[in-house]
Amino acid sequence: MHVMTLDEFESAIAALGWKASDFCRATGLHRNTPSRWRNEGVEIPEWVPRHLGLLLDVRRLYAAHTVPASDRAAGWFLEDLERLHAAYLAPPGGKAGE
Q1: Domain ranges of the chain
Q2: d(CA 38, CA 59)
Q3: Which domain of life is it from (predicted)?
Q4: CA 15, 63, 65: angle at the middle one, nearest 5?
Q5: Which of 44, 11, 50, 41 is nearest to 29 (CA)?
Q6: Whole-angstrom Cα distance, residue 98 to residue 81?
Q7: Residues 80, 87 contacting (CB under 8 angstroms)
Q8: Helix residue spans in 1-98 (DSSP H)
Q9: CA 19 to CA 43: how far, in whole Å?
Q10: Sign (positive/negative) of CA torsion 19, 20, 25, 31?
Q11: Are 73 and 67 in contact (CB under 8 A)?
């Protein structure tokens, strides 16, 4: 089992655009907990890298699937969404697109 290092922790929260205090607020940890990891040699719990990994995955997915900010692409996702709704979100007993 790999134990997360302080450098890895700091890199992960920096990649999220967070500070240690943001991580503590988001996870309910006491604000001094990262200082204890740093100054007292307390081991970082194994859930922390898993939690940060999930947050980083969500951030990557968001970045990969956000709509491009260009005039040429404007609206394409809404047209596609309307087509999908028409095809798949039919009321019970009704036809798709009604």
Answers
A1: 6-79
A2: 26
A3: Bacteria
A4: 155
A5: 44
A6: 15
A7: no
A8: 6-15, 20-27, 33-39, 47-65, 76-88
A9: 19
A10: negative
A11: yes
Q: Which two tokens stand for residue 51?
A: 């939690």
Give the model confidence (pLDDT) of 40-96 as tens digits. 999 999 999 999 999 999 988 887 777 566 666 555 555 555 655 555 554 555 554
Among residues 29, 32, 39, the alpha carbon closest in space to that of 6 is found at 39
Of 58, 79, 80, 76, the closest CA to residue 68 belongs to: 76
Asked whether the whole model's pTM tops 0.85, one would answer no
Rounded Cα–Cα distance for residues 75 and 28 (Å): 39
- Contact present, 11 and 42 (Cβ < 8 Å): no
